[in-house]
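Action item from last week, closing it out:
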Amino acid sequence: MMTLLLKLLLLIALLFQSAFVFAESGAIAISNLTNPQRSTGIQIGDVLKRSLTFETSTPQQMIMKALPAKGTRNDEVELIATNVERLKEGSKNQYKLELIYQVFTNATRPKVMALPAQTINISSNEELSLPTWRFWFSPLVEASIFNAKANVQPQVKPASLDINQYAIGLKVFAGMLIFSIIGLIYVNADAKWLPFNKGDFSHAHKEIKLLSKSKVPDANRVKQAIFCLHKSFNKTYGNNLFANHLDDFISQHPRFKPLHNEIIEFFKLSNQILFSNQFDDNHELMLTLLSLSRSLRNCERGV
């Protein structure tokens, strides 16, 4: 009877001692531990991830500082990233910890490897204990790679495309593009340095175009436009040009013959406007003068 009682007391003491040691160790309970889905056929460079969920009152910043350093190697397995995510906040925060590893080994035969067992002290009295997780490593080449090197074939170059069939079309379109650009510049430009762009009507058209862009009503701008055209006629004719000299002007400059009627109408309009005191600014008339100056400029250029 005494022996049985002594054994019972001894058992109770051992239980208390175990509980005291467990409480003193401060091991944190892991509620969920997830290892990589595949444990066979792992090759060099493969990434393996294990995650676990736990609760603790330790701040997230302290947990991050306690994690093993990125680049830590163990048994040819390198820790390449760690991540801590807070899932729930309260008296005890719930965290999810991810540890991401990458396999680096030069083994030429299959062998058993492992993600290492780790003890992470996240505070002075709390720690996380991760068990070992084993897997089979499968090399890309089962023996020496010298035989593979001897039989390596040169890479095949991609087949060349025959562009001769497109060369003629490319040249034709390039020529059309260049010709079109030159034509647009020549027809629309007003710079004096351009070939065939030094004419008097080119200068008049430029001034009338500037006058037509003004949106402020001004009774004098139509008169200014008419003066610009008269000035160009006089310079081209070499003397003051009047309505009764138009036939002589056309005979000396036959390139303006297609506009003979328009020139006659211009001189009639000029007499009405310049010698009338009741004329007001007219936008439509300004556009008519602009169109006439453009036509005279084109005739001057021979377009």
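Closing note: The longest helix spans residues 164-188.
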